[in-house]
TrEMBL record:
Protein name per Swiss-Prot or TrEMBL: Small multidrug resistance pump
Keyword Transmembrane: yes
Entry's localization field: Cell membrane
Keyword annotations of the record: Cell membrane, Membrane, Transmembrane, Transmembrane helix, Transport
UniProt organism field: Hymenobacter caeli
Main location: membrane
């Protein structure tokens, strides 16, 4: 169940971040509300995941998966392009999360 809460936290944070971009610096009410609610739910769900997942591991997964999802949304929805060094950096973040998940004895499977 902790990974379900972590997944919900990630999705909520990605929704909040996407809405933050669409809020135009909080000048649009709808996206601004989605931003605040999304981040609130993200921290709420994240707190439940921390009952069973070490905070460093949970935060690394949240950050890594969130970065990839926000990057994909930015690419397809906002037409934002990244150069090769940025993509390589994101790849290294994903690799780090995978190493933790696959090889660390700290991570509960």
């Amino acid at each position: 169940m902790p990974y379900v809460f972590l997944f919900l936290a990630i999705i909520s944070e990605v929704m909040g971040t996407t809405a933050l971009t669409a809020s135009n610096q909080f000048t649009k009410l709808g996206p601004s509300i989605v931003t605040v609610v999304g981040y609130g739910l993200a921290f709420y769900f994240f707190s439940f995941s921390l009952k069973a997942i070490p905070v460093g591991v949970a935060y690394a997964i949240w950050g890594g998966v969130g970065i990839v999802l926000v990057t994909l949304i930015g690419f397809f929805y906002f037409k934002q392009r990244l150069d090769w060094p940025a993509l390589a950096g994101i790849g290294l973040i994903v690799a780090g999360v995978l190493v933790m998940q696959l090889f660390s004895k700290t991570v509960s499977h």
